[in-house]
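pasting for the record
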Amino acid sequence: MKTQLLLASLLTLGIQQTVLSQTDANGYTTVNMTMGPQYQNRVFFDLGTNGTVSQPATTWDVAFYRASSTNFGTRINDAYDIKVYQASNNPADWNNITSNSVASYGAPLFNADNTTSIQEGAFEQGSESSGWGEYNFGSHHVEGKVIFILKYPSGATVKFMIEDYYFGYTFKYAKWNTATSSWDATQTKTIANGSDDAYFNYFSFNTGEKVANLEPPKASWDMMFTRFYTDYPYIDPDTGQQLTMKYRMSGVLQNPAISVAKVQPETQETAATTIPASTAFSKNISTIGYSWKPTMGAPFSNVVYYVKKGSDYYRMYFTSNEGASTGNMYFKYKKITGSLGITEVSKKASFGIYPNPTASDKKVTVLFDVKERADSKGNVEVYDLTGKKVYTAELTNQTGFYKQDLNLSHLTSGNYMVKITYGGSTETKKLIVK
């Protein structure tokens, strides 16, 4: 308990650390990760370093996508449970909105979670072609058109409009004053994209300023443990139909730079690994999402996730979720490319072969991760220790990750050499056939 309290305190302070862990008999690292009680923190986890970066979840209101000069996007902070409403798509109505009521504004707008674009936030769900504005082909600016009302669970209300985007955002806002039943003076701010190597800049209506250091560099995290709204399925008690409703969850949104394959059913605790086909991998930011949580009713003990990060592959699965009382979420992961022996054969491809030693059926799989199309096809050859070629197969020429199964059941048990050729380069590996 003292360890958990210390960890939660460190996370609250936003300290970068190597997360508490241990390795099991199958070589999996066990991670005891916490968002803190009531999910008070947003936590970024890096598979490559087994490290976390954690920051308080409610020190910002709006996040402005700044990772690209041409793409834009704005996310509302779901940890605050702020509801976004479109009040008007006429900028001239700014002074005509004299109430903080949202009764006539329709359903709230939410950040997108079923998407490959992490920047697609609630404001991009507005009525204009760019959500909150229209692209000007002459000036190359996105010009704001939509006025939004932001409602907080506390009753606080903010009137908000993005006026312009061009390598940064110009926006204005006004807070509702309950004492005078009117809006306070309008504040106008501009936040340039800047040079920080992160996806977003963050702004707080409370301080009226940009909030710094709320996100690690893009290449330094793979999974973000956070609050987010999603379409949650439920059964209508009157009709028996399965419907969906927007529900705020705690779970994982993935870095757009990685891809994830969810496999179910699959035994979690095993030393053997079989990487899914390339078509099973997705860059949808909620591929992991919340479906691993045992509180969701469906079995979670047979769910496994394969993560592709560059040329590395990880296998991971969740073991426990303690809920909002502690914010603790436990999972295990293992870098399986290390055990598969992935090697850079040339700048054009990476290869690996597994399992090694083989299983009793003497079947092995060649992993083939092609970075660019080559002029000639590759091949794999197996030799015994006398130098005799005992197996050969062609590696089909294509771009992307795929695998090719080899049946070596005709070989006797012993040591062999596997030679892989591609793009004018070769690599030789030792293979043990059981």
